[in-house]
């Protein structure tokens, strides 16, 4: 009996040892399989059908001429000479208005008509002064001839000369006033008075605002119309103090406006300010727009980038790079040729990004890249998503 118990203990120990060894071996197999899965999960495989459905693009790494950029925001402006405020020179009533907001007008075009008894009186004063001048001129010439022949009185000549020159000055002053009102003095000399006087546009452009109504009495200097000419609309950008030394005339600016979503506009800097604004501390930079659009209006907010130093560098499209934590990843591409259809394998590789321009980003690599290596040129977001599925074991 004692012998049997001893045998049983020995057999039990042997069984326990065998089970323990088997468990360790199975655990080791599972751990090895897990590591193999982790290593394999960093490669994303796509069938030929998936590759085509995703419209995947692969290519060798291209060299691109990319520029460094300076961020700059601002608004669209026009030069002072391309804006006009039309005011009333004299108190008068608005008899008619010939334009509305948005109308295109030419320089010298009639915007409205004014009428007032004072305007009629002005024309009468001019005609009277001009007729008087004709009489005085004849008298002046007669007195001058008599004085030169020592027949006439010197005092009479001097008085006639003073009256003539005084009236001559008055006529010129009244003519100037008439022309300011858009009235032709020659017509008035012939006795053809104006019943109403035109309000003339001083520039060509668009009517921005109409500030009067028909029949309204307007005081002198009352604003009647606002006109702007956008032919020379330009970008007015603010460059912060830390970036001023990077900006100079001749550099290009890339910018966008909200009214043209998805469209990039370009301008060339023609003037860099020499005075700092205090809030914020920045200088004005003016740039002439290259591809102008009719939808550009002064005062529009713009978001831009000044393209400064340029250099040739390796680059990838923005859609070929994905940020994952603190890293930026691109994907090496390799086609598996075994089998009839073959499939594509994409391996993530860390890149250091640089300047971006026109949808391309400069890249550098932390490891050596084989000559002729292919890269995924798009769908980096999809590839990283598939890679994460592999890491979690989600095959859906």
Automatic annotation (TrEMBL):
Key words, A-Z: Transport
SUPFAM superfamilies, per the entry: HlyD-like secretion proteins
Highest taxon above the source species: Bacteria
All copies of domain CzcB-like barrel-sandwich hybrid, residue ranges: 84-228
Keyword set includes Cytoplasm: no
Pfam families linked: Beta-barrel_RND_2, BSH_CzcB
Domain CusB-like beta-barrel: 238-306
Transmembrane segments: none
InterPro entries xrefs: Beta-barrel_RND_2, BSH_CzcB-like, MFP_Cation_Efflux, RND_pump_MFP
Similarity comment text for this entry: Belongs to the membrane fusion protein (MFP) (TC 8.A.1) family.
Protein name, UniProt field: Hemolysin D
Source species: Echinicola rosea
């Amino acid at each position: 009996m004692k012998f049997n118990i001893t045998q049983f203990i020995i057999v039990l120990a042997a069984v326990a040892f065998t089970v323990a060894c088997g468990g360790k071996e199975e655990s080791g197999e599972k751990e090895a399989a897990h590591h193999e899965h982790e290593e394999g999960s960093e490669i994303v495989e796509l069938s030929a059908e998936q590759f085509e459905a995703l419209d995947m693009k692969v290519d060798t790494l291209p060299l691109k001429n990319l520029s460094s950029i300076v961020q700059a925001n601002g608004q669209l402006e026009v030069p002072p000479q391309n804006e006009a405020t039309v005011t009333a020179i004299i108190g008068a009533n608005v008899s008619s208005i010939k334009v509305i907001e948005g109308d295109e007008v030419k320089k010298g075009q009639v915007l409205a008509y004014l009428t007032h008894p004072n305007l009629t009186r002005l024309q009468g004063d001019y005609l009277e002064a001009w007729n008087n001048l004709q009489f005085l001129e004849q008298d002046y010439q007669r007195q001058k001839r008599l004085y030169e022949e020592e027949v006439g009185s010197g005092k009479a000549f001097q008085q006639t000369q003073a009256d003539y020159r005084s009236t001559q000055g008055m006529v010129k002053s009244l003519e100037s006033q008439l022309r300011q009102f858009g009235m032709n003095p020659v017509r008035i000399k012939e006795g053809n008075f104006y019943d109403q006087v035109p309000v003339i546009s001083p520039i060509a452009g668009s009517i921005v605002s109409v500030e009067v109504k028909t029949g309204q009495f307007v005081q002198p200097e009352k604003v009647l119309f606002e006109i702007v000419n956008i032919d020379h609309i330009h970008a007015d950008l603010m460059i912060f103090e830390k970036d001023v030394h990077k900006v100079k005339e001749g550099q290009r600016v890339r910018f966008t406006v909200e009214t043209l979503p998805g469209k990039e506009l370009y301008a060339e800097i023609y003037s860099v300010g020499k005075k700092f604004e205090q809030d914020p501390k920045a200088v004005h930079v003016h740039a002439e727009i290259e591809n102008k659009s009719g939808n550009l209006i002064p005062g529009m907010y713009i978001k831009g980038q000044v393209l400064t130093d340029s250099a040739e560098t390796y680059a990838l499209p923005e859609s070929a790079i994905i940020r994952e934590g603190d890293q930026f990843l691109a994907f090496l591409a390799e086609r598996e040729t075994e089998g009839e259809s073959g499939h594509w394998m994409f391996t993530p590789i860390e890149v250091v990004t640089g300047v971006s321009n026109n949808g391309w980003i400069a890249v550098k690599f932390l490891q050596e890249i084989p000559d002729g290596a292919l890269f995924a040129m798009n769908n980096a977001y999809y590839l990283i998503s598939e890679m994460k599925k592999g890491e979690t074991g989600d095959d859906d």
